[in-house]
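Summary for the steering committee. The consortium agreed at its last meeting that each partner would contribute one worked example illustrating the joint modelling workflow. Our contribution is presented below. We chose a case with several input lines so that the handling of multiple components could be demonstrated. No manual editing was applied between input and output; the record is shown as generated.
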Amino acid sequence: MSKYMDVHHGMKGITADQLQEAHRRDLAIEAEEGVHFERAWADPNSGTVYCLSEAPSADAVKRVHAQAGHPVTEVHPVPLTIE
Amino acid sequence: MSKYMDVHHGMKGITADQLQEAHRRDLAIEAEEGVHFERAWADPNSGTVYCLSEAPSADAVKRVHAQAGHPVTEVHPVPLTIE
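What follows is the complete predicted structure of the assembly.
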């Protein structure tokens, strides 16, 4: 298991409720892939959303996000963390 | 005060010790700008570092990082958070 930071673009105007709902959809199915989405941050002005997860692979992160309806292409492993 | 995510590039090969030292240099001077760097994540392979802060402005984040020796151009406000 490793930490991953993934980045969504094109989410301009996303609201707090929409972010919560998207996160809820990830949580509902993440166990199938052994992923856990821990945190998320969104900038409605630029349409950027960052998600931090613990996952077995970047592909597992992509599969959960895709199945939850918000596919992502940019997934970076972040093995070094200060939290 | 708002949350900001800033992104450094070109840090290929960064080690855990170097990340800790960079974070320590931020913490040592951040109060001058009213900034607090809360978390950081690094991918040594791609050379990407993400820093999460609470700050009065993006410019304040940039000034602290620049003075600490690791200037950044990409600073995104992230007013929506799930933590």
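Helices of chain B lie at 16-29, 58-67. The first strand of chain B starts at residue 2 and ends at 8.
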